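C-alpha cells in:
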C-alpha cells in the first residue's frame, strides 16, 4: 500500500477527503488514543480484541458479528447491490465532489440509506 509506505497522494487529507467549508472537527487531541484504548477493554461475549499495532492503531475483533448477523448484512447488501468502491474525485461547480475508480482500491460496497 502506497499510503503505508508514505509514497502517495492519499497522505494529503484534503485531496482524498475534502471537507465542506462549514465542517468542524469533533475530535480533540488524544480522543483517538482514548477510543482505541477503550476498544481494547471490550473483550467479552465471545469477542476477542487483538491489538496488532498501537502506532498506528491496528485492531482486529474476532466474532464481532454472529453468523446470523453476518448472513443478514450480506442479504441486505445483495438486495441493494454491491458496486466497486470509489475515491473522492474533483470538486464540481455546485460544491459537491465527483468520484473515480482507483486501480489500487479493489473492494466492493453498498450503502444502507434510509431504512435497511
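Residues out:
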Amino acid at each position: 500500500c502506497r499510503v503505508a509506505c508514505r509514497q502517495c497522494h492519499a497522505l494529503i487529507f484534503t485531496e482524498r477527503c475534502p471537507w465542506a467549508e462549514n465542517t468542524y472537527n469533533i475530535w480533540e487531541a488524544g480522543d483517538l488514543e482514548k477510543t482505541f484504548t477503550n476498544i481494547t477493554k471490550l473483550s467479552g461475549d465471545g469477542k476477542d480484541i487483538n491489538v496488532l499495532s498501537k502506532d498506528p492503531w491496528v485492531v482486529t475483533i474476532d466474532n464481532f458479528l454472529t453468523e446470523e448477523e453476518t448472513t443478514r448484512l450480506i442479504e441486505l447488501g445483495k438486495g441493494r447491490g454491491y458496486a466497486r468502491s470509489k475515491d473522492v474525485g474533483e470538486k464540481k461547480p455546485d460544491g459537491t465532489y465527483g468520484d473515480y475508480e482507483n486501480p489500487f482500491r479493489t473492494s466492493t460496497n453498498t450503502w444502507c440509506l434510509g431504512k435497511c
